[in-house]
Amino acid sequence: MKSFIGSLVYCLSLLLVDLCESYDLTTHNNPSQILAQSYAQRRNNALQHRTLNPAATDSQCRSRPLDLVFIIDSSRSVRPGEFEKVKIFLADMVDTLDVGPDATRVAVVNYASTVKIEFLLKNHLTKDSIKQAINRIEPLASGTMTGMAIKKAMDEAFTEKSGARPKSKNISKVAIIVTDGRPQDQVEEVSSAARASGIEIYAVGVDRADKQSLKLMASNPLEDHVFYVETYGVIEKLTSKFRETLCGLDACAMGHDCEHICVSSGSSFYCKCRKGYILNEDQKTCSLKQVKVEIVQDPCMCEARLAFQRQTQTSLQDLNAKLAAVTRKVEQMENMLGRM
C-alpha cells in the first residue's frame, strides 16, 4: 500500500512540474498573473513548445513561397472568445508555413466598420514574431465593411512598398478572408478587381456568414476556395485543408484516375491525352482520334474518262475491222476448197 501511495505521489509531482513549465510558474509569473492571461496568450505559450511534423508542414511549403494576407472580421457579431479562436487559427496557419524573407511573408488586415492593417508583409519575417503580433490584435467595432477591407488589402498590403515581392519573382499572392456576417458594402466588384490583379482569394464563412457573398469574393474553382464552418470552435480544423492547398502539394502525386496524363492545378487536377487521342466525356479516359478521309473530285477526271472511252472505241473498231478481214479470207479459202 505504501509503495502504491509513493508511486501516486511521484506521478502527481511530475504532473505538477509539467504544469509549472507550461504556465511559466518557475519564472516571474505568479498565480494571479496566470489567471489574468487570455486563452490566446496561454495557447501562444503552448505553441512555443509544440513541434510539428516537418514532413507534413515546412518541407512541403518550401516549394511554394507566398505573399499571404489574412483579412479578418472583428465586428460586434464576433464575440471576444470567438475572436481569440480566430487568432489561434492564424497562429496555427503560420506554424504550417515556411516563413522567411525568401519564403512566405504574412500580413493581417483587421476590419469591422473601419479597416486596420495590423502588420505588413515586411514587418515580421519569423514565425515567433508573427505569432506575437497576432496575439496583440484586438477586435474593432460594429459593422462589416468587407469590400473596404479587400480594397485596402489590394491597394496597401499587397504592394512592393509593403513587402510584397515584384511580379518578376512569380510569388503567389493569397488572401484568406474570415467572416461570420453579411457584408454591409459591395464585394463583387472589388473582389473581381483583386483577382484580376493576381490575388488568389479564399473565403471562410463561420456560422451566420452569407454564403452567396463568400462565392462572390472567392477565386475559381469555388469548391477549392470557399469554406464554411458552423462555429468558431471548429475553425482550427481548416488548418490541415489550407496546408494542403497553400503548400503547393502535387495533386497528381497524391493519386489520380487519368488514363494518360495528369496535370496538377492548385489543390485539384485535370486529365489530358497523348498526341493522337482525345479526352472522352468522363474527362478521364482517352480514345484514338478519328481521322476523316475526304475524297476530292479531280476536275480532270471526266476528260480523262472520255479520252479513255474514245481510245477504247477506236481499238474496238480496229479489232472489228481486222476480224472482218479475217472472216473474208476464211470464206475465200472455204470457197476455193469447195471447187476442188
TrEMBL record:
PROSITE patterns: EGF_2 (PS01186), VWFA (PS50234). Keywords: Disulfide bond, EGF-like domain, Repeat, Secreted, Signal. Coiled coil: none annotated. It comes from the Eukaryota. GO terms for cellular component: extracellular matrix; extracellular region. InterPro entries: cEGF, ECM_Assembly_Org, EGF, Matrilin_CC_sf, Matrilin_CC_trimer, VWF_A, vWFA_dom_sf. Residues 1-22 form the signal peptide. Residues 67-242 form the VWFA domain. The keyword Signal applies. It is found in: Secreted. This is Matrilin-3-like isoform X2.
